[in-house]
Each structure stands twice: as C-alpha cells, then as structure tokens.
Design brief:
The protein has 232 residues and is an alpha/beta fold. Helices cover 41% and strands 22% of the residues. The structure holds S-adenosylmethionine (SAM).
Length: 232
C-alpha cells in the first residue's frame, strides 16, 4: 500500500476510534499545535463545518467557558453544550446577523473556514468556486472577528491562490501557508493561517472594477469580452 493511502487509512481509523466525525479533525489539531490558535474560553466561528470534525475539536479545546458556532448548508448533528449550529449559506444576506446574534454581541477570537463546493471534477471550475467561497468567508470577517484575532482557511492551490494570499496579507499582520501531516500530499488543499487581524479587508477585484465602471457590467463578462477581442 502506498504511503499516502496508509496515512489516510491511519487518520480515518483514528477518527473512528476517537469519535471524530471526519479525518479533517486531525488537520485542525495539528494546525492548532503549531500556531496555538485557541485556548480555554476562546470564541470560535467554524464556517463550512459539516459533518462537524473541526467543530468537535474546537468545542473540546475552548471548554465550557468558550463558545463555538458551526455553520453549513448541510445539517450538523448537535456537538456539545458550548456549541451552536447554524444551517445557513455563508453567501446569504442574513448570515452576518445570524452569527453576531449567536455571538451575543461579542466578536470571535478565531474564524475557521474549511469550505469546499460540490466538486464537478472540472479542476478549473472547482478551484475557482472554492476560492470564491474563501473570498466570501473573508468578506464576513470585519463584523465577526475581533481585531488581533486569527483565521484558518482551506484553499485549493491553483491560478487564483496567490490572489487570495495577497488579500489575506492585506487583512492580517502575518499569514502562514501550511500543509498539516494529516492532509494528503497529492491533494491541492493548503491551509492559510492569518494571525493578528487588522479589522479591515480589501475589496474583491470584481467590486473594485464595478466601482470604477458603475454602468460597465460585471468583471467576468468584461474579461470574456477581452478574451474574444484583446485588441479592443
Ligand atoms: C470539507 S467540508 C468541511 C469538513 C469539516 N471541517 C469537518 O471537519 O467535518 C466542507 C463544507 O463546506 C460546506 N459549504 C460549501 N459551500 C458552503 C456555503 N455557501 N455555505 C455554507 N457551507 C458551505 C459544505 O457543505 C461542506 O460541508
């Protein structure tokens, strides 16, 4: 058996034995060991949380004086008393209000985003959609993450990856790119750890374009026009 398959089986078996709902739980444990992202009493928002592995790990680490809010499009079984589950799309207009209500007026110390779109198998499209979800998660940060707080975000490495890193670097004092041992080497997923949130995030490129060209349509259609006729 190849080494990477053996590693996947190892983490799958451990997840089963230790009662975690996903192998991904070990990725968060390893990232937390490296960066000390949460402690007893921390408030954590876990975006794209189903089936709940990261929510379980966070709930254990923050203890009963901490709080965890898990959000997903898919239902998540209850985790623990210190955890609130929201069944919601992170791109909906109501999601910020739902999160701030659940945080009871506080801001989070840590925002996690292990988001994945439904995969089509067409790499470019899956990559683009996944990075778009990451950008939606970044858009949520100012009202929900406290200044000086941290974030962990899964991102598929590809053409749009560096643009995402750049946006995070404009939002956090320090950004680290990490690949925990529990993540398969051949998988394109990387983990971006943002430390010391500045409180502000830059606009997305498409928003900048639209503010410069208010009647000029959408950036995507502008780009496809350009591809058809780059001389104009
Ligand atoms: C890889 S799974 C998360 C695994 C989780 N961290 C764990 O340890 O169990 C990615 C999740 O992102 C969720 N997701 C994708 N798009 C979303 C959206 N627009 N709003 C909320 N959740 C979304 C998916 O439903 C999926 O459950």
């Amino acid at each position: 058996m190849r080494l990477e398959e053996a590693k996947r089986d190892y983490y799958r078996r451990r997840a089963k034995e230790e009662g975690y709902r996903s192998r991904a739980a070990f990725k968060l444990k390893q990232l937390n060991n490296k960066y000390q992202l949460m402690r007893r009493g921390s408030k954590v928002v876990d975006i794209g949380a189903a089936p709940g592995g990261w929510t379980q790990v966070s709930s254990e680490l923050v203890g009963n004086v901490g709080q965890v809010i898990g959000i997903d499009l898919e239902p998540i079984k209850a985790v623990s008393k210190n955890t609130i589950i929201l069944l919601e799309d992170i791109t909906s207009s109501t999601v910020v209000e739902s999160i701030t209500n659940a945080l009871r007026g506080n801001k989070a110390d840590l925002v996690l985003a292990d988001l994945s779109p439904k995969l089509s198998g067409v790499w470019d499209m899956d990559h683009y959609k996944q990075i778009d979800l990451c950008n939606s998660a970044i858009d949520l940060l100012p009202p929900i993450l406290k200044n000086g707080g941290s974030s962990v975000m899964k991102a598929f490495d590809g053409d749009e990856f560096q643009g995402l890193v750049k946006r995070l670097k404009q939002s956090f004092e320090r950004v680290e790119i990490s690949k925990p041992n529990a993540s398969r080497k051949e998988s394109s997923e990387m983990y971006l750890v943002g430390l010391d949130f500045t409180g502000q995030v830059p606009k997305r490129h498409s928003e900048v374009y639209q503010s410069l060209h208010p009647s000029g349509g959408h950036l995507d259609s502008a780009l496809s026009d350009w591809h058809e006729n780059p001389a104009t």
